[in-house]
Amino acid sequence: MGCGTSIATEPQSKAAGTDEAARNPSPALTMKAAILIQGWYRRYMARLEMRRRYTWNIFQSIEYAGEQDQLQLSGFFSFMLDNFTHLNSSGPDLISQLLVDPWLGRDTCHQLIPVAESYSGPRISFPLSVSHTDALLTAFKEHQILHASYALQLLWETKKLLKQMPNIVHMSTSYAKEITICGDLHGHLDDLLLIFYKNGLPSADTPYVFNGDFVDRGKQSMEVVLLLFAYLLLYPNHMHLNRGNHEDHIMNLRYGFTKEVMQKYKTHGRELLQLFQDVFSLLPVATVIDSKVLVVHGGISDQTDLDFLNSIERHKVKSALRLPRHSVQQLDVSRPYKQTTSSLRSADSHCHRWLRPVLLIVDVLWSDPKPQEGCSPNTFRGGGCYYGPDVTRRLLLHHGYQLLIRSHECKQEGYEICHGGHVITIFSASNYYEEGIPGQQNHPQAHPNPESESSRRLSSQSSPGEVVLSPL
Amino acid sequence: MRSADHRRINDAFQVFDHDLNNTVDVREMGAIVRSLGCFPTEAELLDIIDEVEEPTGFICFERFLPTMSKILMEHKFSPIPEDMLLMAFEVLDQQKKGYLESDELTNYMRHGDEPFSQQEIEEMMSSAVGPDSNAVHYKDFVNKMVLDGQT
C-alpha cells in the first residue's frame, strides 16, 4: 500500500521514543511526510478540476440547448408567418415587417436625426479618424450611449463598406507579421477592452480578425459591435470581421441583443435593428490568411465548396432560422414546421437552387468539429454539421490550407486544438456564470519555424490568455 | 465478486456512454474514476488509461470493469484522512513552531520522485500562505482544504 501506513506506524514509535527523536525525525520519515503531502495536494487539485468540468458541462448543456430549440421553434414560426399573415387583409403587421426579408426602402440614405446640444456623449463624423474611435472607447468605458443619429450613420457607412467586400476575405502577414484572431465576444465589452489593452488597438501594425458572435448574452453588445464597426471603417484593410451565428436578427430576438437595443434606444431602436439586420447579413463569412489559414465562425461540412461559397449573394441569407419566403411554398407543406435545416439537408435538396447557398452559410456558421470521422447533421444545434477530421483534411488539402481556426464553442481554457492540430477553437468572452474563464486570442506569425509548438500564458484568472503559434 | 461495486461502476460508465454502445471517450476517464470516489493524480490516471484504452481512443466497458473493480476493492487512491495529513505536516515542522516558513515548505515539496513544478508550488503557496506572509499555518491550511474539497 502507499506511504500512508508507514506514517501511521512511525509516529507511534516516535511517541514511545525520547524528545530527541521527536525533535529530529529521520530523513526517511521526512521524505515520506513530504510525499504524502504532495500526493494529497495533487489529488485535491484533481478533484477541484473535475468539479469545475462538471459545472462546465452543465453550463454548456443549458446554454446551447436553447439554441437547438430556437432553430426548431423558428421553423414553426416561419411556417405560420408564411401561411397565415395574409389572412388579415389590413396589411402587414410589425412582426412581418421586422422579419420579412425586404431589402427595399433601406438602400436610400436615411434622414439625419438631429442631435440635441445637451447631448454629452461622443460625437463622430465621417470619414472616421482615430480621435473618433478614441472618443468612443472612452465614452463606452464610462457607460455612455452613442446617440442614435451617430449609431445609424455608423451602421450606414459600415453597410456601404461591407457591400464592396467579397464573401471570403484574404489577408496576409507580409506587412504586420502578426495577426490577432479573437473568438466570440458576446457583448462582453470588458474583454474587448482588455484585448485592446494587451495587444494594442487595431491599426496597420496590429491587424485583427474577430471571428463572429459579437452580440447577444452579454450586456454591452451594442458597444462591442459599434467599436468593431468603427475600427472596421477606420482600418478596412487591417480589421476583419467574420459573421457568426449570432449575427442574425432572429437569434438576437431571443438572446438579448434586440432587447438591449430597444432598451438603450427606444424610439430609434427599430430603425437600428433593421439596419443591423442588413449589416449582419453583409458581413463576410470567412477570412483566409496567407492562403494557409482558414478562419470561420463555426466550421465546415462535407458540402462546403469555398469557391461556390465565394460566389453566392450572402446578404440574401438574412437568418439561418428564416428561409426565404418563396422557398417554403416549394417544400412539402404538410409538415413544414418540423423542417429544420438539418432535415432539409437530408431532403432532396440539390433540386432546390435557392437552398444550397443557405445551407452552405448555415454550415459555416453553425457546425462543430467532432472526433470521429465523417459528417453528420448537428442535432445538438439543430443546424449545421458535426465534421470529422477527414472532412477537415479533405478541405484543407483541396485548397492547400494548413489550419482551420474557428470559434462558436465556449472552451474552458479559452481554446482547444483538435483534428490532429488542424483545427483550433478560440473563444474570447469570459464566462459570467463562473469567475472568469480566460478568453483567448491567437496570433499566427509569418516566419516559419521548424518545431510546431504552442505555448500558453495566463496572466491572471480573469484576463484573456494568449496563444502564440510559433510556426505555420 | 462484489455486485454493488459492479453496479456503481456500470452506472458511472453509463453517464458518459453517449452513443449507448458501452464505450466512453478516453477523456472522460478522469470524471468517471473520480465520481466513484477515487482520486488518483494525473499520472496515476494516465496509468489506468494505459491499461484499458483501445487503439481507437475509446474505452470499452469489458476492460474497464475488472480494472476499476480492483481499484475499488483495494481502496486505492482514497482521500487521505485529515489527521494523517496533519501528522505529516507536524513531522516536517521540526521546530514545532505550529507553522512552516514558506521556504521550508517549498523546499520539502521539491523532494521525492515527483517534485512539484514551479506552477504547483505557486498555486499551493497562494492558498497556503497566511496574510502575515511567509508562514504556512498548516492546521488552518488543512482545515480549509478539507472543507473546500467536500462536495
Keywords:
heterodimer; A: 472 residues; alpha/beta; Purple Acid Phosphatase, chain A, domain 2; 6-stranded mixed sheet; 44% helix; globular; disordered N terminus; disordered C terminus; B: 151 residues; mainly alpha; two-stranded antiparallel sheet; two-stranded antiparallel ribbon; 8 helices; elongated; PPP_dom (chain A); hydrolase (chain A); metal-binding (chain A)
Task: Outline the fold blueprint.
The complex is a heterodimer of chains A (472) and B (151).
Chain A: H1 3-16, H2 19-23, H3 27-84, H4 94-99, H5 130-141, H6 148-163, E1 168-171, E2 180-182, H7 189-199, E3 208-210, H8 221-234, E4 239-241, H9 249-255, H10 257-265, H11 269-282, E5 286-289, E6 293-295, H12 306-311, H13 325-330, H14 341-346, H15 355-366, E7 368-369, E8 375-377, E9 385-387, H16 389-399, E10 403-406, E11 415-418, E12 423-426, E13 440-444, E14 454-457, E15 465-469
Helix pairs in contact in A: 1-3, 5-8, 6-8, 6-11, 10-11
Chain B: H1 3-16, E1 23-25, H2 29-35, H3 42-52, E2 58-60, H4 61-73, H5 82-92, E3 100-101, H6 102-109, H7 118-128, E4 135-136, H8 138-149
Antiparallel strand pairs in B: 1-2, 3-4
Helix pairs in contact in B: 1-4, 5-8
How would you briefly describe this protein structure?
Chain B: This is EF-hand domain-containing protein. The complex is a heterodimer of chains A (472) and B (151). Chain A has 472 residues and is of the alpha/beta class.
Summarize the structure in words.
- The complex is a heterodimer of chains A (472) and B (151).
- Chain A is of the alpha/beta class.
- Chain A has one domain: 4-Layer Sandwich (Purple Acid Phosphatase, chain A, domain 2).
- Chain A has 16 helices and 15 strands.
- In chain A, strands 1-5-6-10-12-11 form a six-stranded mixed sheet.
- In chain A, strand 11 (415-418) and strand 12 form a beta hairpin.
- In chain A, helix 1 (3-16) packs antiparallel against helix 3 and helix 5 (130-141) packs antiparallel against helix 8.
- The longest helix of chain A is centred in the N-terminal third of the chain and has 58 residues, at 27-84.
- Chain A starts with a helix and ends with a strand.
- Chain B is mostly helical and 151 residues long.
- Chain B has eight helices and four strands; from the N terminus they run αβααβααβααβα.
- In chain B, the strands form two sheets. Chain B has a two-stranded antiparallel ribbon with strand order 1-2. A two-stranded antiparallel sheet of chain B has the order 3-4.
- Chain B is elongated.
- The two termini of chain B are 29 Å apart.
- The model of chain B has no long low-confidence stretch (mean pLDDT 83).
- At the A-B interface, helix 1 and helix 3 of A face helix 2, helix 5, helix 7 and helix 8 of B.
